[in-house]
Amino acid sequence: MNLDKQLQVDSSPQSPMWQLTIARVRDFYREPAAIFWVYGFPLVLAVALGTAFRDRPIERIPVIVVADSPNPNFDTEKILKSLGMDSRLEVTLADSAKASRDLATGKASLLVIPKGEKPLLRAEKNRPESAMALGIVEAALLRARVGEMHQGKEEVEPGIQVETVAEVGGRYIDFLIPGLLGMNLMGGGLWGLGYVTVDLRVRKLLKRLVATPMSKIHFLLSLVLGRMGFLLLEIILLLGFAWLVFGVRIQGGLLPLAAAIMLGACCFQAVGLLVASRATSYEAVSGLMNLTMLPMYVLSGVFFSSDRFPLLIQPLIKLLPLTALNDSLRGVINEGQGITDISGNLIILAIWTLAAFFMAMKLFRWR
Amino acid sequence: MAAILCSGLFKSYPGKPLVEAVRGLDLRIEEGECFGILGPNGAGKTTTLEILEGLQDPTSGTVEILGKSWADHGNDIRQRIGITLQETRLSEKQTVAETLGLFRSFYKRGLSLDAAVAIVGLEAKKACRIGTLSGGQKQRVALACALVGDPDLLFLDEPSTGLDPQSRQQVWEVVRALKVRGKTILLTTHYMDEAEKLCDRLAVVDHGKVIALGSTDELISQFGGGNLVEFDTPRMAPSADVFNRLSGVKTVKLTHHENPGEAASHVVLQVAQPHLALPELLTMLEKAGAGLLSLNVRQATLEDVFLALTGRNLRDDGK
Q1: A61-149 — its CATH code?
Q2: ipTM
Q3: Is the entire prediction scored with pTM above 0.90?
């Protein structure tokens, strides 16, 4: 032991804010599991759900033209040609035995039996696809008929235009990504402040820190600051990934987006602090966090629209912080809304933030 | 000026029944002193310490630390004291240097990190993560955290509890080095050897009160000091009067224990001069045909003091 060294007095310590924040960051990035759950998991979720609910190509309706002789006659040829022009139909040729079987088992939605001027259409009356097939085949045959009557043309253009919607901004993945972002902000805030605080309390490190001249404000700010750092990376990763893989684009401005994210983050950090204010065990804080988060996972429209819940509870759902956040995020990302459009929801978030923070400070157990 | 001054300290916790952890405790600890609070588990040692450290408010009573009160000068006091708690789990993912750097940042003046690790002899572990250290090394890091602000007054709550003998020695060495530097140290312990080896003065605490105060030697001589002759005989020993007649016997303590099939007695004689009392005792036992199962002559310890004061051993739970 070197007693001379003990006399070295160093009077230029680093800023406690910086030290506290960097300690938070170190604790986090040196925990590989935490990194996965915070950064990896939302991406996995986005891929899994985005793939499962991607917009499928429209399925074609199977229709069988019945021909018992192997060489199709003139009637049959004509029908095949007329129906073949309609891209919604998948037309095959089969003998009556196989055709009946396929109709019975649902492999075919409709049978077309050529009978000169009046082909016979056989449908299963309880099957919606049969009804659809009936309509399409009827129209196709009719068009062919009209074409024949008009200057011998084989086909008449229907007097309408058809357009299907698969626009960016209206797909499921477009709905999902803001929801995941909101969910991440909620989980991150509650874990990042709630769980971390209780962890420090359980380990008696909080008590130890409070016994030093550490400023409590510095301590709380360092938690928030650390969280905001992780958050920035989270957002960039999730939105960048959604843009690269699914082409999800942010329709609105960055300012309203940043406002919604910041307020949402602050709100759930304050709620996290409130949840952690008294808890002295991991079990207690986990229970409280689940109690807080679970209703919002379900009600606040993360995976499906909250409009599906009964009208009676809609006003309540609208007041939940995650609903307010998700609605703001969807407004900005999907609909290109500005600050004024989402201001109602931002006010809800601000009120939650202030209420939770002041209540947390009233209840907080520093030991 | 006293480093620590407290009087009429009471602390009770609400509940049924009301828990009274501290019940009228007075202490005066001088600057440069190493003072020990000795007592069994549950005696109120930690509660007392936490009140003095400003971590708990007393139900009533006054506390003055380095001449200042917690209510008016909390932050000034915190700048000048260092603390180890009974159980703090430092962050396993941080290195020793990082942990000390964090604690250092809270103090206006203090030691360099190199100096802090040097005091606790952990120079080689400076860049290691806390999670890789042994229990004794972790305890020394906790000590370094208490020292990094170069405090005038140190509070150590059971500094060597739960450590292996070698680690205890190392912790004691650190405390001794601090004594040499003139730091005031207040520690709690339920180990007699720790109290004897480290403390200039002791307060024996039981049921939230100081029941004896003084240096180890003072306490031992005050409460039945001198030498103890202890022996077991296979027969029921005669009454205490018989032993009182031996030369220099101050007190006699007689316990009968009934083992299955045989009765035996355990006798403790407090004597002034064992070389006079012993031959007489042996002759007497021989005449009575009592026989000896064991015989032990030793100096009285703090354990005996505690036993004399409370009728219990230090390691008994404080019930």
Answers
A1: 3.40.1710.10
A2: 0.85
A3: no
